[in-house]
C-alpha cells in the first residue's frame, strides 16, 4: 500500500505542483495532515482510504480541469493504473465525490472516511491558511480584493457560485464563515472554532484599515 501512496504523491505533484490558486501540492499535503489529526482522535475509518482520498481529492475538481468529466477521467485513469481492487477504488472515489463545497450543496456522506476527508479539506479553507488561499484564488480568478458595491450572495447555483461577480472579502461570507457549523467530526469542530475566530478578527482589522480607522 505504501507503493500506492508514493505513486499518488508523485501523480498529484505532477498534476498540481505548479498551481497558484491555493490548490497546490502543499494544500494537498496539509489536507492529509489534517485528516491524520482528525483520524487519530476519532479512532474510526480506514486510514488507507482516507489518505488516498486526501491526496487525490482535487484531481477531478471542475475548476482545475477543462471540465468535470475530464477531471473524473483523469482520476479514474490513475486509479486503474495502480491496479487497486474495484471495491477500494470505489471507496476512494466515493470520498472524493463528496468533498467539494460547490456553493454549499447539501450532500449526505455515507462513511466516516468521507466525513474525515471533507473536514480536513474544509479546515484548510479556514484560519491563516484559509485567508492566504482566499486571496490567492481571488487573484487567479481576477476578483478584486474588496468591492463595497458588490453584494454578498446568498443561495446560488453552482454556475453562479463559480462564475458570478464577487470579491475575495465577499468569499468569506459566501463560504468560509459557514464552514465551522458544517464540520462532521467532533475534533474538526474544535479545530474549526479557533480558525473561525481568527478570520473574524482579520475581517475586523481589514475593515478598520479599509475605512482609515486603524
From TrEMBL:
Residues 20-135 form the HD/PDEase domain. SUPFAM superfamilies: HD-domain/PDEase-like. InterPro entries: HD/PDEase_dom, HD_domain. Coiled coil: none annotated. It comes from the Bacteria. PANTHER family: HD_PDEASE DOMAIN-CONTAINING PROTEIN (PTHR33594:SF1), SUPERFAMILY HYDROLASE, PUTATIVE (AFU_ORTHOLOGUE AFUA_1G03035)-RELATED (PTHR33594). This is HD domain protein.
